[in-house]
Design a protein that fits this description.
heterodimer; A: mainly alpha; 2 strands; B: 94 residues; alpha+beta; Ubiquitin-like (UB roll); three-stranded antiparallel beta sheet; 2 helices; 18% helix; binds fe (ii) ion
Chain lengths: 330, 94
């Protein structure tokens, strides 16, 4: 997902009886559906796992602007350009909501950014794929934002108050993202044969990377079990992937496009589609930094940060000078 | 590492006649920039008619461990609620 393979304590879920009184009271609050707020007591593992997860989610929103930003100046009409600009601006907002949520856990914004820039924190694998044609912008809104929604909707109920509130805000804005993408796909799919072919090509390239967004199967992962007990993860990766496929197949059919999977078939018994797994070795390679655009994406982030240093410092110096002058005048 | 821009808490009045409500926070070098950033971050879809910003360090919050002593004293004062009193139906609306 936007946060993939987040590690928790690695110890597995403790039984209520094995917990310290504080831990037990904490777990019971979560089990009752209470929200945990910033200054309240929380286990160190909960705090650290959340920083990793929310931080990675925030980084994904920010880095996720880059593949789409590539097409802002090349959008086919002024209206499409304005829409894409608004969508990408929303993603910047999503990143900011999430950084603020992470900061309530005692990490600074600069620390989070430093960890992204040094490669110590990741962002979603999906943003390491290139956007080669305008149809890719359609495929991203439809599939990538669609997959993100699958994961973000249940996270609105997460146990950590600031994270939950950020998710509620984000979910309100996401459906515009998915619809504008699908709208591009509809236009392309009903266009000239060449346009339809572009749409099909975008689907072919983005299908498996979208399935990878949910991460490998985690039904046996101790990290996921702990995160689910803490309600910072609500569904297993496989559950969400299945839901995504079931929702997306009819949408592709409506477009008259073909999902690039020979094994795709409706399974009456489970009430969902059978489908092929993505190539997980490719996923691990992308996570390691060897995807098609990893260097370009991280390079662009680091450059923006470094090129903006004089500006951040200048505004800070100006603000300090102003407030000193104001004090002197009082 | 250079100094980070300070953190500001953002409050928005959603509609005329309502209170300003806390919506989140952001970093900005000064109050003027904080308002401008708040406009872009928190009101992209007509969410507000007015913005307040205050630097986070100026907010004093009650501590979670004081929740009992602070709020419990009002728990047993049920007579503060109108439903505490039984008024006969014959009296009419009150
Ligand atoms: Fe987003
Ligand atoms: Fe989005």
């Amino acid at each position: 997902m936007y946060a993939q393979m987040v590690k928790s304590t690695g110890e597995g879920v403790k039984d209520l009886k094995e917990m310290s009184p504080e831990e037990r009271a904490f777990q019971e609050r979560i089990d009752r559906g209470e929200k945990i707020e910033p200054k309240e007591w929380m286990p160190e593992g909960y705090r650290k796992t959340l920083i990793r997860q929310i931080g990675q989610h925030a980084h994904s929103e920010i880095v996720g602007q880059l593949p789409e930003g590539n097409w802002i100046t090349r959008a086919p009409t002024l209206e499409r350009k304005a829409i894409l600009l608004a969508k990408v601006q929303d993603e910047a907002g999503h990143g900011l909501y999430l950084y603020c949520a992470a900061e309530t856990l005692g990490v600074s914004r600069d620390e989070l950014l430093e960890k992204l820039h040094s490669g110590n924190m990741k962002y979603s694998s999906i943003f390491n794929y290139p956007t080669l044609t305008w149809a890719d912008i359609g495929a991203i809104g439809w599939l990538v934002d669609g997959a993100a929604i699958m994961n973000q909707v249940p996270l609105q109920r997460t146990s950590y108050g600031p994270y939950s509130r950020a998710m509620i805000r984000i979910c309100k804005e996401e459906s515009f993202h998915q619809r504008q993408g699908y709208d591009i796909m509809m236009k392309m799919a009903k266009g000239t044969p060449e346009q339809k072919e572009m749409a099909q090509d975008a689907l072919n390239r983005f299908w498996y990377p979208s399935l990878m967004m949910f991460g490998p199967s985690d039904k046996d992962s101790v990290h996921s079990a702990q995160s689910m007990a803490w309600k910072i993860k609500i569904n297993t990766n496989d559950e969400l992937r299945q839901k995504f496929v079931d929702q997306t197949v009819p949408q592709a059919e409506y477009l008259g496009l073909t999902i690039p999977d020979e094994n795709l078939a409706w399974n009456e018994e489970k009430g969902g589609y059978d489908f092929s797994e993505p190539d997980w070795s490719e996923f691990y390679e992308v996570l390691k930094g060897n995807g098609p655009c990893n260097k370009e994406r991280l390079g662009a982030r680091v450059k923006a940060w470094e090129d903006g240093a004089w500006f951040r410092e200048g505004l800070m110096a100006h603000a300090e000078k102003q407030s000193a002058a104001k004090l002197a005048a009082e | 590492m250079k100094k980070e821009w300070p953190l500001w808490e953002v409050f928005i009045r959603g509609q005329h006649g309502l209170n300003h409500r806390h919506v989140g926070s952001l970093h900005a070098p000064d109050a003027e920039m904080a308002i401008k950033n708040a406009r872009d971050v928190y009101t992209r879809r007509n969410e507000g008619v007015s913005i307040w910003v205050v630097e986070s360090k100026h907010i004093t919050a009650s501590s979670p461990s004081e929740r009992g002593p602070l709020f419990e004293p009002s728990n047993d004062k049920v007579y503060r609620h109108p439903t505490f009193f039984d008024i006969p139906d014959e009296v009419g609306h009150m």
